[in-house]
Amino acid sequence: MPKRIRGLGFILRPGWIALMLVCVAFTYLCFTVLAPWQLGKNTTTSRENQQIADSVNTAPVPLKTVLPQQDSIASGAQWHKVTATGHYLPDVRVVARLRPVEGNQAFEVLVPFVVEDGPTVLVNRGYVRPETGSHIPPIPPLPDHTVTITARLRDSEPTLPGKEPFTRDGYQQVYSISTEQVSALTGVPLTGSYLQLVEDQPGGLGVIGVPRLDAGPFLSYGIQWILFGVLAPIALGYFVYSELRARRREKQNAVKDEPSPSTPVSVDDKLADRYGRRR
């Protein structure tokens, strides 16, 4: 076995094996889980920011151009403004509870809207603040005639595990705006995307604003995890190299401290080593 490889035998000790396994596992997680997780969030945030920026500079389009059928979904057009003419279904009473709006909790009021010669779409009228005890306050009635509304397209939200809908204060209450869940609760077919009213609309309540454009720290976090994944094996190699150097230095010092076999040892020195020197 080569001398250099023979000197690395210490890495087969349990402590070093455990260290190497931890290093390999950490590097694997950095490249396959942690970095992709943060970079994926950055991609999602960048896409949403682009959709918001595009919506500000784009004129409203007819709803039926993006949601032509009852089962249509407009996931690539979130936040874009659309217009639709039709009527509300006022007998359907659903609210989304515990929704943060401007830093405070609110109810967001949901109602189906039947588009003329088009699909039925869920409309978020806006928000109202809860009364004492988290009760729903009186909500202004809806217009009972045909109206034209302008709203922003929104993607349906996933349902929350363990958060089942319930009825209180005469309203069916949900924890997320899932068009599929609301459709199942009300028995009204709904499109896969919903609408969020802008200001000064028929049936509108407190206006829910557009999120601020903020890329967040996700890109830098993703790059940091990649760097950690690169540095971990380098650090391990450095530790191995340092340990190898220290062991070689100790071995060289031990050799230097040994008496030279070529130097003759006198009888007095031998006796002194055994019994000590006379004073």
From TrEMBL:
Any one GO CC term of the record: plasma membrane
Chain positions covered by the region annotation Disordered: 250-279
Entry keywords, A to Z: Cell membrane, Membrane, Transmembrane, Transmembrane helix
Pfam families: SURF1 (PF02104)
Compartments (UniProt record): Cell membrane; Membrane
Main localization (coarse): membrane
Recorded superkingdom: Bacteria
Family: Belongs to the SURF1 family.
Protein name: SURF1-like protein
Organism listed in the record: Mycobacterium asiaticum
